Amino acid sequence: MYKFYPKIFVQPPGCASKLLLVMKLTTLLITLTILQVSAATYAQKITLSEKNASLLTVFDDIKSQTGYDFMVSMGVLRSANTVTINVKNVALKEVLKQIFQNQPLTYEVADKSILVKQKEPPLPTNAKDKSAGLPAQPADVHGRVIDSLGQPVAGANVTLTIKGYVYGTVTDSKGEFNLNKLPQGSYTLLVTYLGYNKIEKTVEVNGKDLRFNLVLHNSSSILDQIQIIAYGTQSKRFSVGSYATVNADDIEKQPVNNPLLALQGQVAGLNITSTSGIPGSQVLVQVRGQNSLNVFPNLNNTIGNPTKPYDQPLFIVDGVPFAAQNNNINQLASIVTAQTYTGGVNNGAQVGISPFSSINPADIESISILKDADATSIYGTQGANGVILITTKKGKAGATTFDLNVNTGFNSAADPVQMLNTQQYVQLRKEALAADGLTPNNNPNDYTGAYAPDLTVFDQSKYTDWEKVIYGKNTNNTDIHGSLSGGTATNTFLISTGYDRSTYDYPGDFADQRYTLHSNMHHGSTDNRFSVDLTTDFGYDQNNSSGFDGAQDVVLPPNLPNLLGPSGNLIWNYNGVDLTSDQFYAGLQEPSYLENYNFNTAFHISYKLLDGLTISANMGYNRNTTDENTQMPASAQNPAGFVLRQSNFGVTTFQTVNIEPQINYTKKIGKGVFTGLVGATYKKNVSTSTQVDASGYSSDFLLNSVNDAPQASVYNQDTYNIYRYSAGFARLNYIYDNEFILNLTGRRDGSSNFGPTHQFGDFGSVGAGWIFTEEKAVAKALPFMSFGKLTGSYGTSGTDGAYAYQYLSLYKTIQYIPSFQGISPSSPFNFYNPDYSWAVKKSLNVALDLGFFNNRLLLNATYYQDREGNQLIQSPVPIQSGLPVVLENLDATVQNKGFEFTINSTNVKTKDFSWRTNFNLTFNRNKLIAFPNLANSTYADTYVIGQPTTTIYGFKYKDVNPTTGLFEFYKADGKTVTSTPVYGEAATGGDEVPIANQEIKYQGGFGNNFTYKQFSLYIFCQFSNQNAQNYLAQVYTSNQLGFEYNQPEAVFGNYWQKPGDVAQLQRLASGYSSTAINSALAFGQSSGIYSNDTYLRVKTVSFSYQLPNTLLNKVNIKGASVFVNAQNLLTFTNYKAGDPETPGLFSGLPVQRILAFGLNLKF
Amino acid sequence: MKNMFFDINKITIGLLLMATSFASCKKLIVIPENPPAEITRQQEFSDSASTISAIAGVYSYNTGNGFAYSDGTLTYSTGLSSDELTYTQTDDKQQFYNYALTPLNMEIPNLWSYPYQSIYQVNDILSGVTNNSGLSASFTKQITGEMEVVRALYYFNLVNLFGEVPLVTTTNYTATEHIPKTPIATVYHQIMVDLADARTKLTANYPSSGRARPNLYTALTLLAKVNLYQGNWTNAYHEADSVITQGGYSLEPTLNNVFLDGSQEAIWQIPAATSYSAVADGQNFLPDYSGAPILFPLSTSLVSAFETGDQRFQNWVASSVTGANTAYYPYKYKDRQPSTPAEDQMIFRLAEVYLIRAEAAAHINNLPQAIADINTIRTRAGLPNSTADVTSQTAVLNAVMHERQTELFCEWGNRWFDLKRNVTAATSAATVLGAEKTGFTANAELYPIPQAQIQLDNLLIQNQGY
User: In chain B, positions 406-465, which contact chain A (CB-CB < 8 Å)?
Assistant: First the structure.
């Protein structure tokens, strides 16, 4: 076990922009400090009066009087004697002399530091007796320890062991160590220093003096890696909160163009949902389940599945709250928005373009996920749904390096659904009409339902696989990323640029292209008191696609006539049958252009006022702007109809200004170290959007400008949202003897989103940890355990998911409506309610961390329980009250509790071969635990107390009645069977009961990383189990079986045809006048459309080969590798017809299978 | 040691106090008084100019937060439920035709939600102008009368479509979000109270150009209609009579001019939205282009209800021929997407008032007056005088109903409401619809309340049969 003077590893918190290198830099700073020897200060006067005091106490006193730091290892201190001293105004030099008089220790003074070490290479306790048996002719062993940057490492423990005898020392300020007069023999040399891998080697002492140059490398143990936390950094070893970090290594292996997708399956408690396989599309993120109850009212009268929102965490990039958060950045329609799938979470937001499209995953150094109250309370009202800290890459000191990465990927739909062929389709349609007693005819004005052009007019043998036509195309990605980095220890820089192009599966020339420019500059003064960091990130994303009426067109009849003529012209009519509603190519000829600009700049400045006291500030600005244009040219419209050329222009801007002054204070108290952080936040968010719709153009070629539209047909609208926020926060941390940890955080928040009397709220947390392997008794009893820590935290955080001004009753001009008799019309749009305030979440987190085999195997088990009360929601109001919603607090409590397990293990590590494994598993259980008067509330049949908030109400499905051929359901009593259940919950006389919930029961991922010489292979699998909508959901809610729609092959032959049939599906219905339609519609609201969805997906396979250096040196290349990365390669699932990751909509664009080949060069 | 802790405590407390005072600084979180695109309710009713903007909001041709029926749902849904229209597509609208409505029907919310949203606007204006010192007494009087007519119209339609409905006259959602349905008589009482008050507040002059906002005779027309539906024949007769004799309206001699902006026959007509956006009935009923399918062909019984030579069939009905099949469709509104709309959405016109007077007269046994009024309408339609037996009240009433069918078809649900009123045995819903198609039951007379609304307020009890 390491023992060390805490000062060495406790780096100043609050340096939010410092990176993983902090450990290394700290060493560097200390070394530099020591190098600046100044004897002048050596003559300070000291007054001391101690009796039998510990040496540490005396050091403390001296430090407080002189400011001198003592550097000493705990191991060295153990051999120290107590000190009795009484001096008044005596020079430091004298005092030290007195103190060390009776000590087995000696010291060395350099600048403001005093390095304490053992006086002589200690002889083994019993060496005097045994030395006679050892060979004569002793020799000296000395050497120098440096880190991988070539800087000396001061304070490293060096021991030489022979046959149970230990000779030890610590390195001095120059990294030098000396062990004198060692007897001959074969020794084990061990060099250890926190945060670095130990050096272990055999040394033969044979009478000659030996000298070693030793290089310490950064620790690969996850336990000692530095991770980014709120306003600072921390090692996992001493954290009491629940954090997880995904590093560049893991991100780079995945050929994804949205950084959020790289997190999928990587972290326990983190749920990542892609909304479609379309480049640029939204990726939803949730930490530890859904906390809020918000329900968007549905005026369209769909029931059973009220639209529930999706809680997403706070996103912070380089210390600047990401202005757009994870909101859609588009406002106009495109192929992306035409996807009706919303990630299976029914989140109310239309799917759209992800704001993270403009951030290049290759520029990201790490992504930290903050989960519990200890980690997030310091973000107060913004932290209730977790926090995601994205940190971009910084410059590295050393020789200037140019790194180039090029890869090309090939994509295809991972799991397309097989639809009926023409023969099957025609048969099904004929049977459907026959079942309703109808004879198909070709009269479009027939109202009996017998009009069936697909059976009477279209070619009965023509076959088109529309799925293949619409998104069967294979596409490719091209990604180029270059970075230039270097500098000295005090000044480093990084400039990187990237280009990425992904094309669409759809027919047409569509692509998402991204250009990024990232840079970082760091400067530190030579006295290490002052430092500045400037990071800027610029991203430009260009998404060209089209208007499109959605994946629904996959269900077009397979015998539909050609929609394109021989010259590529659109066909609108076939033998009198109007094809307008089927003509999806028309949509594809309506261009939709989107350009997104993301500019993020983060500035960090820090000054060390006194020893241990640093003032600093984070300042940042983020602006995310989107320009859009969608066009409807005449060429894409049916010339026989009313042709109106139209063009829509949209601009959306999100901005954040963020200023956070901070003070850090570090002080050693007794056997521990106290760290205090106090800071304040001022934040202003402004988001605006404008939209201009113009129509009536005289030519398709004028659609790029609004100027050419008739003035009377140009409509504008804009939106504006402002948010001002101020806060004060503090974190107090005390680590006692490397064993006990106490962490307190607090924050007071003020938000402009609330009425004048409700603007301020207080939040806080307390966390504690015990590293029980530091306890001698424990270490003795459990020798196989190299690390053990028990932690717990409890605290509050909040959420103000509100918009500005909602507490006032407001009138606004009705958009898109011209004046009424010359008067601009306006209407009220919100209820008056000045009294709403913060929602509050209370979180409990308990975790056990264990390390075995010298921490090669690390286990973490976490239990958490979160409860969010005083829910702040857009409460639905019955429309008789006049408006659909009111923003108010609801005295309901939602609980999320669960277990998270993480394993990191280095299974094999030899010179040539290594095998590392990581594994995570999450069980989250969501439950509504309190809701006063639920039965009489507007949520009476949305939620059930004691059940997950994803509960769905509907009819309990029984089976198909063999006699009538109709679906049958249980009535509310649970016994009576009917084919015509009554809509509504039991209390209102209906038959709907809770039938399902869409909670994810468990999910996780595991990765294996193999390296053999220059080869490396990484395989990552993700798995999940939930109850989800199956393909019948789409069949029975939007394209009824038997209607003029194509269907998945899975239904064929599985429907009832004649009395006595025992079938999976009921008899066919050809239209809404069918007597079978009511039970079909009821089935769409029943438990029959839910089934288990379990899958294991081979998410990432990455194979790379490092070219041998001998070859590269000839061409002046420092390093080169070639690689193949694959995403979504294989899926094992019980889910039928459709992608298990996007359940419920079989016609949507499935998740893409990507195969990327690439080359990495370092110059 | 103690000193050190003390120091740390002092420093910590000091810093915490600094942070807290920063956090509590209200100035940092001050935002402008109102957002750029919106004004507070107080600002809205501060003077007549901005108040008028809210009034325009009530009448603007826009569903959701304007005139509730501007999407045409009322016309086609009742047209399908009665014996006027059929439907050639397969979607929720079909359920009206074959009485297969469920509480999940996607059209029903248009008939339930939009009126209530409009009623909220009206209620807010009524409370905003009352006791408002910033507005003149005459202005307040005019606005109050108008809004009462609007609210009465909405409740009149709600009660006829759904039966009992919640009666809401306040904007305080806490008082209305959890209430049961109000008895029909109470709703009618509120309608009568509103109209009676409007009658004292409105004058014969229209408050703005055209006939876009109600005047005294608009209130009287609605009052006559309400009284007719309530069986208050004498009142209905006198109110209709006042409109006809004192209102200064006249029947448009040319049928094709009846629905135009500025029609002499119009008592209340709301200007259509704007370029390319005509009256909804035109957009819904007219084919998109020549040869496009007719969504709502007229039923055979309505087509055959027109007597030979009826100019209304010539001018207000159009046809589309596909091979051997001919489909007829409503053609009262002739514009689908005009660049400059010439038609307005007609709410009340004089022809209906004649027929109200005729029916009321028949009930109070003034049969000659009834026949005279029918003949006024028939003459304009190019038809000879009615041959109904002037001595038989039933025969005259049947003649009135027949004339209502052919004059008022596909307007404001008149036919559906007439059938449900059971004016005579021959014109009752059971008789007419039973002969027209299968599936009609007494329960089908009321539409279901949207399921989502039942969920939101479980004191609302679903109508029988759903």
Answer: 450-458, 460-462
Strands B317-322 and A157-162 come out as unpaired
Q: How many CB atoms lie within 10 A of CB A221?
A: 23
* Chain A CA closest to residue B89: A447
Angle at A602 between CA A600 and CA A608, to 5 degrees: 180
Record: contact B94-A982, CB cut-off 8 A: no
Does the pTM exceed 0.80?
Answer: no
Place of tokens 């749920």: A271
Going along chain B from its start, the domains and CATH numbers come out as 8-214+445-456 (1.25.40.390)
Token code pair at residue B426: 């021959």
Query: What values do phi and psi take at A56, rounded to 5?
Result: -60, -40
DSSP conformational letter for A951: E
Distance CA A1018, CA A1099 (A): 11
Residue B100 is encoded by which pair of tokens?
């297969």
Give the separation between CA A81 and CA B109, rounded to whole angstroms.
87
SS3 state at B382:
coil
Contact between residue A630 and residue A590 where contact means Cβ atoms under 8 Å apart: yes
- Give a three-class secondary structure readout of A869-908: ECEEEEEECCHHHCCCEEEEEECCEEEEEEEEEEEEEEEE
Contacts with A125 (C-beta within 8 Å, 6 or more apart), sequence order: none
Residue A595's pLDDT is what? 95
CA distance B448 to chain A (A): 11
Other CB atoms within a 10 A radius of the CB of residue A1013 amount to: 11
Please answer whether residues A633 and A394 qualify as being in contact, where contact means their C-beta atoms are separated by less than 8 angstroms. Answer: no
Contacts of A739 (CB under 8 A, 6+ apart): A770, A771, A772, A774, A775
Kindly provide the residue ranges of all beta strands, DSSP E only, lying in A1053-1118, ordered along the sequence.
Answer: 1090-1106
Rounded Cα gap, residues B245 and B376, in angstroms: 14
> What would the two tokens of residue B290 be?
């020549």
User: Tell me: the pLDDT tens digits for A300-326?
Assistant: 444 334 455 678 899 999 999 999 988
Q: Residue B8 has what pLDDT?
A: 55
SS3 A813: strand
Flag whether residue B254 sits within 8 Å of chain A, measured between CB atoms: no
φ, ψ at A463 (rounded to 5°): -135, 125
The model's confidence at residue A252, banded by pLDDT at 50, 70 and 90, is confident
Residue B9: pLDDT band (50, 70, 90) is low
Nearest CA in chain A to B50: A826
Q: Which residues make Cβ contacts (< 8 Å) with residue A1138, sequence separation at least 6? A: A415, A417, A1030, A1031, A1048, A1144, A1145, A1146, A1150
Question: CA-to-CA distance for A1129 and A1101, rounded, in angstroms?
Answer: 8
| Mutation to test the A interface, candidates B11, B15, B29, B172, most A Cβ within 10 Å | B29
Query: With left for phi above 0 and alpha for psi between -120 and 50, is residue A62 left, alpha or beta?
Result: alpha
Confidence class for position A969, pLDDT limits 50, 70, 90? very high
8 A C-beta contact, residue A559 and residue A461: yes
CA atoms of A793 and A261, how far apart (whole Å): 30
Task: Give the nearest partner residue to B458 out of A449, A725, A936, using CB atoms.
Answer: A936
How is residue A1109 written in tokens?
């250096």
ipTM: 0.92
Read off φ and ψ for residue A922, nearest 5 degrees: -130, 135
b vs e for B368-396, b when ≥16 Cβ sit within 10 Å of the residue's Cβ?
A: ebbbbbbbbbbebbebeebebeeeebebb
What DSSP string describes A989-1030? Answer: T--BEEEEE--EEEEEEEEEEEEETTEEEEEEEEEEEEEEE-
* Helix H or strand E encompassing A200: strand A199-205
Q: How far is CA B246 from CA A147, A735, A1065, B238, B261, in A?
A: 104, 94, 66, 11, 22
